[in-house]
Structures are given as structure tokens and as C-alpha cells.
Design a protein that fits this description.
single chain; about 230 residues; alpha/beta; Rossmann fold; 4-stranded antiparallel β-sheet; 8 helices; binds adenosine-5'-triphosphate
């Protein structure tokens, strides 16, 4: 079943066209990885789907509903959660308080404080720690856990592994696999091509605001994705 339909979507920053009319779909239960060079438009795309940035053209349908004019907080209510680049936690609040704040916007579903702490065992001993005192990997785990607290049907994660130590990347990806096994649908932006290809069902490569390549990960080589990444034929 198609969960997300992106149709001819464009987004701008002033005069700059960051996303130039892209179309793709994401099926329920699938992991779609978006790769591409810095500035290719990946973050802008995710933010536009989440309603944090306006669309200049085209549209997004979620589970058959047209999201035109639906503000970001209402999209959370429909089941779309964004883990933004830079994580954006409340630094003065503890891990548990950050999770609880998100839980107040929760849809009905399996994810509550206990369930997310079970999924991210590394957070259990950090419950009472201020978010600002955490390492990068701990912050990323908290940020994903916080998004889960809303019981999303679609989780958008920007820059999954950027700036994390390898061991933290392993831990975060282990939880991504756990989420997939639990039936979650994920759209992830990942700088690390090897990781993207190993975890995702499908990969989209962005080049200057357009989709240069779209393929099931089992049907594409690393070399083909790299060529699309650099705009080589
Ligand atoms: P990165 O990996 O660097 O985040 P990206 O693929 O996610 O890259 P975007 O962040 O979406 O790309 O940026 C797309 C284009 O829009 C770039 O040219 C960028 O400089 C520009 N841009 C992004 N955010 C803003 C902003 N707030 N104001 C002006 N221009 C912006």
C-alpha cells in the first residue's frame, strides 16, 4: 500500500530553487534512503513533507489525504514525524522530559515511555540527564525516540549518522532495523552511501533539486549510485 505520494513537488529559499519538481512514492513498511551531495535539497524536501517549509508547487498526499494547507502540528497528528538535522532537543530539559513533551502530542499506538526506552536501552540510564549534556549519538537516539513518542506512521530522519562516532551509528541503525521489523515506514537522509544501501529497500539520489536515480537497493550498484551522486552518466 502506498503511504506517501509526492507529486511534482518544488520548494524554494527565496529565489533559490532547492527542490525542483520531484515525484515519488513510499510504500507502507518500506525504508527509503535519500542520498546526494551537500545542498542537493534533501533537508528541504523532508521539511516540506513535514510541513515545516512551504511547497512552491505540487503536493504531498499521505494515506490518500492531500496535505495542502495542513500545518506541521496537524501533520504530526496524522502520523508524520520529523527528526530534524541538528536534532533540536530542549537542552535544558532531561531526556525523559523531552520524551514526555512529545508524548503529549501522541496519537494512539504502541509507543510510550516504556516502549521507547526498551527500543533504546542506551537511554535508560540517561533519563534524568539534561539533553545538552549528551553525546552526539545519545542526542540522535533521544531525537528519534522523541519522534516515536508521537506514534508516527511515517518517520522522516534527516542526516541519520552525520557527526556520530561509528559505535553510535551502529546503535542508531540497530534501532532503525527494530523499527522496520515493527512495521514502521521510514524516509531517511543518509550521507553514508554504504549504510544507506545496506539498510534501505529503495534509494533515491538527489542532484541539484532533482531525482537523478531511483532504484530498489537490490538492483543497483554502489558505483551506479555514486555516478548519479556526481551527475555522471
Ligand atoms: P545538506 O546535506 O548540506 O543539508 P541538503 O541536500 O539537505 O544539503 P538543503 O539543505 O535542502 O540540501 O539545501 C538546498 C539548497 O537550499 C542549498 O543550496 C542551500 O544552500 C539552500 N538553503 C537551505 N536552507 C536555506 C535557508 N534557510 N536559506 C537560504 N537557502 C537555504
Amino acid at each position: 500500500m502506498t503511504l506517501l505520494e509526492v507529486e511534482n513537488l518544488a520548494a524554494r529559499h527565496g529565489l533559490l530553487q532547492a527542490v525542483r519538481g520531484v515525484s515519488f512514492t513510499v510504500d507502507q513498511g518500506e525504508i527509503l534512503a535519500i542520498v546526494g551531495a551537500n545542498g542537493a535539497g534533501k533537508s528541504t524536501l523532508l521539511r516540506t513533507i513535514a510541513g515545516a517549509h512551504p511547497a512552491a508547487q505540487g503536493g504531498v498526499r499521505f494515506d490518500g489525504t492531500d496535505l495542502a494547507g495542513v500545518p506541521a502540528h496537524k501533520r504530526v497528528g496524522l502520523g508524520i514525524a520529523l527528526v530534524p538535522e541538528g536534532r533540536k532537543l530542549f537542552g535544558e530539559l532531561t531526556v525523559e522530559e523531552n520524551l514526555a513533551v512529545a508524548g503529549r502530542r501522541s496519537r494512539p499506538g504502541p509507543w510510550d515511555l516504556k516502549a521507547v526506552l526498551d527500543a533504546f536501552p542506551m537511554l535508560e540510564p540517561l533519563r534524568g540527564h539534561r539533553a545538552s549534556s549528551l553525546s552526539g549519538g545519545q542526542q540522535q537516539a533521544t531525537s528519534i525516540a522523541r519522534a516515536l513518542m508521537t506514534n508516527p506512521r511515517l518517520l522522516l530522519i534527516d542526516e541519520v549518522s552525520l557527526g556520530l562516532a561509528p559505535v553510535a551509528v551502529d546503535a542508531v541503525y540497530e534501532s532503525v532495523r527494530t523499527l522496520k521489523d515493527a512495521g514502521a515506514t521510514l524516509l531517511i537522509v543518509e550521507q553514508d552511501l554504504g549504510r544507506a544501501l545496506s539498510v534501505a529497500d529503495r534509494v533515491l539520489c538527489f542532484l541539484e533539486g532533482r531525482i537523478a536515480l531511483s532504484a530498489p537497493t537490490g538492483e543497483v550498484t554502489r558505483e551506479q549510485v555514486t555516478a548519479a551522486y556526481f551527475g555522471l552518466d
